[in-house]
Amino acid sequence: MRPNLVVAVLAFAGMGASFMQTILIPIQGQLPELLGASREYTAWVITITLLTSAICTPISGRLGDMYGKRRIAVILLGLLAIGSVISALSPSVAPLIVGRALQGTGMGVIPLGISILRDVLPPHRLSSAIALVSATLGVGGALGLPVSALVTENLEWHTLFWIAAAIGTVALVLVLLVVPAEESHSHGRFDLGGAVGLAIGLTGLLVAVSKGNEWGWTSASTLICLAIGLTTLAGWGLYELRHTSPLVDLRVSARGAVLMTNLASIAMGFALFSSSIVFPQMLELSEEAGGMGLSLLNTSLILMPSGLAMLAMSPIAGRLERRIGPKPLLVIGAIVIAIAYLAAVAFDSNIWLVLAINTIIGIGIGLGYAAMPTLIMQAVPLSETAAANGLNTLMRSLGTSVAAAVVAAVLAGSATGSVIATAPTEAGFELALLLGLIAAALCAVLAVFIPGPGQISGEEPALQEGALQKR
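^ thats the sequence. predicted structure below, dont judge the formating
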């Protein structure tokens, strides 16, 4: 086994999976015309990927713990490739939604990859490798946006999905050839009832959050979805506590270190996506409306360094984590993000300032995302590594989903009172950036109060505290 090659393959697979989240952003507004369907239906082409990725990450993590992480990763990459081919061949909205749903399942590869690293790498190699694979949750989307913009400006839009199919297929083959198979550390029957309950609960909650701006936050549709989601998740929690082999061990998830890390993950996910909503609109908005008037491709190139910064921070974050530990690293990452947002709020925006601020946010995200998996694995038993990392990935995604809804509502609300009714105002942009600052500050506070992992009854933790410092 060649460790460097294993890390590179898992990072490539993670970036390929997260690339699917932004693949259609450049042509989102054109989908009704391209597919001959209403905007209400074409919006599901974006939403369905969010839903399936959120549902799949904790479920695939548990399956990986039970039946082998590489095996489940290969299945997910296969589903991603199949979904890409279906999307590439789709002449209408219905099969495209099916294909996009299958593409979303690939996000489960990221927590599985992090857990595989724990199984195959020596302790002193873990920190940098975990930082790299964890960061792919943001890197793939940031790097994928300019690629998507370039393709859609020069080629037929279905070409995007053929590229996605190629990425998924190559990742699948590389995982089979390079990543070693491992023994499962968890036994028992798969909790099908828990998986169904989680799927229904998350679907209700995320549909309400993602469609609230479109349907109206007090509309019957939004309130019904929200009620279904929250009620189902409450019942699911009670069911999981009584199950002998639960999908998600809520007693483990309720431990101080795990719970506080997951709460900090939601806040950091919100901070990440606030800038991802604000800066593209600010850059693309016409100069007459108070924006900078850039094309989609030029906007993507301005935003791309954020993803490169996340990637570049991986080895640095690894060294810092070995020196100071994951908790201080998470605090530092959140403070870096907060400083970037503070500068965004304090100074008048221009292209170079946006480039610098977004890059600094990428640095902070790279540091924070590097720390989270280690904090989780220090507090859970070996048999729960993939499931716990899957839940943590879900928490990050939940933060981005909430940010998308809240920031979109803020910008839309400011637009209704502006001279140009469809254009967000400067006050709207400032409020959205202030929310990003608050989320980053909250993440730092939560990280400060993350307790030590403590003792795990019956099993050693998946990663011993201080193991990364060992040479």
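The chain has a mean pLDDT of 86.
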